[in-house]
Amino acid sequence: MSRLTIQGLSKAFGNVAAVHEIDLDVAEGEFVSLLGPSGCGKTTTLRCVAGLEEPTSGRILFGEKDVTRLPTEDRMIGMVFQSYALFPHMKVRDNIGFGLAMRGVRGSEADKRVAKVLDIVQLKGLEERYPRALSGGQQQRVALARALVTEPALLLLDEPLANLDARLRDEMRFFIRSLQRRLGITTLYVTHDQSESMIMSDRIVVMFGGRIHQIGGPEDIYYRPATGEVANFIGQANMIQATVVESRDGVATVESACGRFSCATGRPLVAGSRVTAMVRPEALRLVNGADRSAFSGQIVARHFLGSTVDYRIVLADGTLISVHALGGNASQTGGRVSVEVDPSKAWLLQ
Amino acid sequence: MKRWLFALPAVLMVALFVLIPYLNIAVMSFRTPSATAIYGPGFTIENYTRVLTDSLYLGLLKDTLLFAVATTSICLVVGFPVAFHLARTNSRWRGLLYAGVLSPLLTGVVIRCFGWIVLLANNGLINQLLGLAGLGPYRLMYNPVGVTIALVHVFLPFMILPIMNSVQSIDPRLGEAARTLGASRARSFARVLLPLSMPGIQSGVILVFVLSASAYIIPMLLGGGQVSTMPTVVVQQLMGSLLWPFGATLALVLSLTALALVGLFGALTRRSMRGVA
Amino acid sequence: MKWFPAPRLCFIAAVYAFLLLPIAIVIPMSLNAGEYLRFPPQGWSLRWYVSFLHSEPFTSAFVRSLGVALIVAVLASIIATPAAIFYVRHLRAGREKFRLTMLAPMLLPEVLTSIALLFFFNQFFFGTQSMAPLVIGHVVITIPFVFLTVTSALYNMPPGVEEAARTLGASARAAFRRVTLPLIKSGIVTGAMLAFIMSFDNVNISLLLKPLGTSTLPIQLFDYLRYDFDPTAAAVSTISLTLTLSVVFLIDRIYGLRAVRF
Hints:
The complex is a heterotrimer of chains A (about 350), B (about 280) and C (about 260). Chain B has about 280 residues and is mostly helical. Helix content of chain B is about 70%, strand content about 0%. Chain B has a domain at about 60-230: MetI-like fold. The model of chain B has no long low-confidence stretch (mean pLDDT about 90). Chain C has one domain (about 55-260): MetI-like (MetI-like fold), CATH 1.10.3720. In chain C, about 75% of the residues lie in helices and about 0% in strands. Chain C has helices at about 5-25, 25-30, 45-55, 55-90, 95-105, 110-125, 130-155, 160-165, 170-200, 205-210, 215-225, 230-255. The model of chain C has no long low-confidence stretch (mean pLDDT about 90). At the B-C interface, helix 1, helix 3, helix 4, helix 5 and helix 7 of B face helix 1, helix 4, helix 5, helix 6 and helix 7 of C.
């Protein structure tokens, strides 16, 4: 296993910069996701790490070793492609054994290792099948087995679950994550699905337009997004414009057009500066009756979602906010309510 | 970058044995014909003036192009339904049907013409069958009729296959979408399917037109010397006499005229291919 | 099949009859015991096949056609396959032009190409005294077919398999040898078989480029049909037919006719 270090990675295709100055450190055994909308450069970054794309500038290191100029086949990686890329003309046994054959491991030794890894991915006994005779989920696990059998230093996955149906995707997320934990293999995982990255990752790298906006754990990213794009990409966010009244010990009191409330903040603020407060819908509490505290407004829509109820509320200055209340809440459309803010879940954006 | 070396032999072959020879024909057409050598001294445009002013050759050109137009039209009318059926059918005979269209292409034009001779001769199969019904015998061979029938037969697959490919790439749900929007089957066909098959139709028409305009064997065998087209005259000339520059001119005039017509067709149908090709 | 199913099916059946009857009819003709091309045949006999075997022009033409077709198939495959790989995997700029160049011999009228080569070889080389011009002409005509089948096979490869092989430790050459080549083998063989058939059946190129005193089977048949009219022609045709259709059958059995895509 090894650490992965990316320094100042940039990749341009012609005049288009797909990836710009990426810096990232992945610790040994860590599971890191590259998360972002399509076109944000996450796959390009992954392919540069794999050696399938040549960086325009920057360095890539596996542990202490600079692999930037090293060809793909010498990098000792395992990669799972979105389309699985199983060799259709080879049986499962030869697909998985391919990496071993390339490294000179053949015969009974190879067969043993193939059988072992098939067991790990719970596909025991399928050595003699051809890929076309396998279901999507089975093909996916064969692709995984093929990448793992050579015990690579680094595991790279490019949206491997994108072609599976929702149920299977769910199962596979937990499967891949627990497998990765068990093997302790350093992993870089590309996805556009934010809940997927939150479930699976130790840390998430959120990317937009070829740049990293934030690196952090799931809760970090969720409660303390670095930018508006990150806030909007992960879950829902209410954006409220406000002015700082005072700030102390990481809590700021701000005044907005519809009331005064407290927010958490990661930086020192000057009174009077204009900020944007990001408040998660579940950080707001409905209090019946007007004028209790903080904001007041009128409910314009109510959607029952099962475990929660989504309320759309228009505030005094016209701002539309979304509040998630517990399923039992009986407030109805048209009613006037006050909204309380939980300051630990309100965050001031840079 | 030594990767391009892979393509070198092929590119050389085409450049050396297609490009240059074709340019050479063009040059040849401007040379003076000679009865004793491939060409005589000097250059001249007399070959062209001769072709373009002599009613014999103009008539030949017209006849050749008429054959091409007739063949193409019939192939289009006959071939489109077959192509459409082939593209959309789910029957298990599909492979066989496809083979049925492809195999004739692989059996050689002489054999196919021979089959038609057997069928179309005065005492051939068709006349014999018609005779049973008290009809005929009709002269179906050694005249333009026989030549056209054989032309259509030989080149029909070249119309069917491109159209089939085109229709196959049309998402069947497009027709369904049109129907949900209120279009009848006929209108859905006319306004969705037909425009989207235009690339295939265009390819087929161009292919069949050019092929039938330049056909040599079919008019020779089915025409029996009674039907002359530009290619038959040119080849006779080249094999029989040494007036090669003039033969070159004839060949070029035919080709350029055919090309011009194809270009015209392409321009006319370009409008209907907007957003499709 | 919702539009007038019955008349439509009849029409389509008629078209298929039109396409296949002239070819099919040659076979019973060749077994005709009688002298003339009369249908129905007057008894069955193999005499016309015997006549073919005794005809030196026909048998030598057959052997020559066979030999040429084999050489052409091999040459066309060797030349066109690398070009196809280059086109699909490595060419970045000018793709359409390259493709057009590769397909040009197929798109240009064969008669014109034949004339062009006749002039070319007589003006700049030794004329058509050897078989070389004919073989070259056939190869040039068949290169597009191999190019098409191999590019088709390349496009039909599952995406990413070559990259996957690289991530598993295969060098570019090893990936080509162990992954790409096996997967395009069907395309190459199909192309070669098509080239064989096209060369064997070819008339236009052979007509003008054949050395004096030699002949290929289609040309021999062509000459024969202009002047003679006996079922020997039918026997010859049937033999030729059987050969080419066997090759087609082979292609279909091994790789499926869908591999032949234009």
